[in-house]
Amino acid sequence: MDLFNNLAMGFGVAFTFQNLIYAFIGCLLGTLIGVLPGIGPVATIAMLLPATYALPPIAALIMLAGIYYGAQYGGSTTAILVNLPGESSSVVTVIDGYQMARKGRAGPALAAAGLGSFFAGCVGTLILAAFAVPLTEVAFKFGPAEYFSLMILGLIGAVVLASGSLLKAVAMIVLGLLLGLVGTDVNSGVARFSFDIPELTDGIGFITIAMGVFGYGEIITNLAQPEDKREVFLGKVTGLFPTKEDFRNMLPAVLRGTTIGSILGILPGGGALLAAFAAYTIEKKTKLRPGEVPFGQGNIRGVAAPESANNAGAQTSFIPLLTLGIPPNAVMALMVGAMTIHNIQPGPQVMTSNPELFWGLIASMWIGNLMLIILNLPLIGMWIKLLTVPYRWLFPAIVLFCAIGVYSTNNNTFDIWLVGAFGVVGYLWAKLGVEPAPLLLGFILGPMMEENLRRALLLSRGDWSVFVTRGLSASLLAVAAVMLIVVLLPSVKSKREEAFVED
User: Fold this and answer.
1) pTM of the predicted model as reported, rounded to 2 decimal places
2) Four-CA torsion 208, 214, 217, 220, nearest 10 degrees
């Protein structure tokens, strides 16, 4: 009964005029920028984070959550229409979605992505609401040692689930941890790794790194592509609604995708990305019906399943964030950044100390998903128009908005130079095939890990065995070790590399 009372309170908060407006703005902005090729949810939220500073905390988080799944939707639109995945989890959608668009079936492909995502979003929101209370109660049993072990597990999860080379993923996490050390020492108050630069004594801003690596890095990478490589959709989208046959094929794929996404989204690392790959792989293994289009040639199941998995994973990735305060992926790391900006300490205490914010955010997710259906499907013509705008006109505007956003956070020109430097670094990483998302997780979790490590050692009087003598901490470290051993096994390693080469 408590669950219904809590959800009723959440909908009461989310249905205020102000919060509905911000949810709508978030969904619109997210879709608008998500449609632009090469700019995914991470870059979108990184660019628009400063816009939420002046807002009340609830409105800010509702808007950011709206931007997140708006950009997810936008990413699938470009994947289907232009053969360009807007973000990593749309890579799989490209395979069959674009083939459907080429055959003049862009409408049903977009509708399958939209309806599948809406259903998965609703299920994901219900799972989040159901699991939130028991997980929060467990979280209160966590001490500094348990939190440290949990963060170790989170980082190893991020390594395991990152695409590409394991070594590169580990290197990025370590680099993120090192960048998190820049600034003032928590215990002694001494400046460290600041190189006598006064601006670095407070540490490197989270927005600076995120916007540089993901925003500017993406732009430079896109500009490096020749004009003819940036394909523009010129076809006409007709017959938006899927046929009865489409629905018959879609429905089991959506259900399977939602189940996979809901389970894998909770995992630390790239839950939504892994869910999309896993859902597509399972659909390929499922027997084709008589007269069904083969996979890779425009099968509607190849769009509906990964999109459902992706959206369910996106919703359930809020579970570790809201209950334990641990971001499972780069977007959630940005959400942690947004919460700390508004003086909210992410973790189990959010539910008890700020229930309106907690349940209001959960209720707004359902409203946001509904808004996206209303926004996306009737306005497809407008999104296609946006895709035909030459990139040489778009990128100066994006660069300018990013610079304004970064400057407005601290009113400091040093940050703009820093963003530029990280933009160049982001481009080099893209060229080297390095995944930057683990860096962001390392950067967010680094200071939290240091704090909990020091606290645990202070309480145990310098005894390191505290991490293995406490049952919960030891079991978390054991799970982390097993994950690391499994992924290093030659058979798993080759399978893993295969999974990420689907595009």
Assistant:
1) 0.71
2) -120
Please, which pLDDT band fits residue 155 given cuts at 50, 70 and 90?
A: confident
Query: Cα(first)–Cα(last) distance of the chain, in Å?
Result: 46
Residue corresponding to tokens 């309806």: 115
The closest of 269, 306, 273 to 161, measured between CA atoms, is: 269
Condensed to tens digits (0 to 9), the pLDDT of residues 45-83 reads: 877 788 788 888 889 889 988 888 788 777 788 778 776
Structure tokens at 489: 């096994």
**Under a CB-based contact definition with an 8 Å cutoff, are residues 147 and 155 in contact?**
no
Between vectors from CA 369 to CA 9 and to CA 502, what angle results, nearest 5°? 135
**Which contacts (CB < 8 Å, 24+ apart) does range 396-405 have?**
398/36, 398/39, 398/47, 398/215, 398/219, 399/216, 399/219, 401/47, 402/47, 402/211, 402/215, 402/216, 404/50, 405/47, 405/48, 405/49, 405/50, 405/51, 405/207, 405/211
Which alpha helices (DSSP H) does 265-346 contain, by range? 271-285, 301-316, 318-324, 330-341
- The SS3 call for residue 388 is coil
Residue type, 420: G
Q: In sequence order, what are the residues at sequence separation of 6 or more whose Cβ sits closer than 8 angstroms to the Cβ of residue 466?
A: 145, 456, 457, 459, 460, 473
pLDDT of 95 above 60: yes
Task: Quickly state the pLDDT bin for 424 (edges 50, 70, 90).
Answer: very high
- Contact 267/157 with Cβ under 8 angstroms? yes
For residue 459, the Cα-to-chain-centroid distance in whole angstroms is 35
Two structure tokens written together for 385? 């128009």
- CA atoms within 13 Å, Cβ hemisphere of 237: 25
| CA gap 377, 302 in Å, rounded | 19
203: alpha, beta or left? (left if phi > 0; alpha if psi -120 to 50) = left
Residues in contact with 244: Cβ distance below 8 Å, sequence separation at least 6, in sequence order: none
Q: Using CA atoms in the order 42, 130, 258, 314, what is the torsion angle rounded to 10 degrees? A: 0
Quick one: tokens of 463?
A: 């005894």
Q: How far apart are CA 267 and CA 252, in angstroms?
A: 24
Q: What is the CA radius of gyration of the chain?
A: 22
